[in-house]
Amino acid sequence: MTNYLTSLFRRAERNRTLSDLLKLDDHLLSDIGLTRTDISAMRSGRRHASRAHE
User: Fold this and answer.
1) pLDDT tens, position by position, for the chain (54 residues)?
2) Which one, of 51, 47, 46, 21, lies nearest residue 36 by Cα?
3) CA 39 to CA 46: how far, in whole Å?
4) Whose CB among 16, 28, 44, 52 lies 3.0–4.6 Å from 24's, allowing a Cys bridge?
5) Which helix (H) or strand (E) holds 45?
6) d(Cα 53, Cα 8) in Å, to the nearest integer?
7) What is the crossing angle of helices 2-22 and 36-43, to 10°?
8) Segment (H or E) for 16
């Protein structure tokens, strides 16, 4: 049960973080080396987003 709760809290925190990142404008995302596509990939569970923008 503890592992399930830990996993649930981690997933919720991850979703909040990704949502917060999506609130940033494209320039700020670029400054930290991300694109909206990267964030969408992370949200969908893909480990590595396409780095075609580099």
Assistant:
1) 889 999 999 999 999 999 999 999 999 999 999 999 999 999 998 866 555 545
2) 21
3) 10
4) 28
5) none
6) 33
7) 160
8) helix 2-22
